Amino acid sequence: MLTVYHYLGLSAILFALGPYGVLTRRNAIVIFMCIELMLNAVNLTFISLSSYLNNLDGQIFVFFVMSVAAAEAAVGLALMIAFFRNKESVEVEDFNLLKW
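^ thats the sequence. predicted structure below, dont judge the formating
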């Protein structure tokens, strides 16, 4: 029998993997996937607590988080395509347009 603590533990593990990937990877696409992993971990927390507390507020927040994630993915991938066209690379080290 899975309890809410199992879901919260899984969510904590998934969320911990997200910053690790963001801080250790150099590929911008992988960094975006790690951000999505963190957002999905938050969604899992919202859903599990919403189910545990018999309250629908968490599920409403999940829709908000999903819309933010979709917007982030759309804008991020558009930026990656633009950078790839200019630099022919998606490595974070090559993105120095805003540096002095």
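Residues 57-87 form the longest helix (31 residues).
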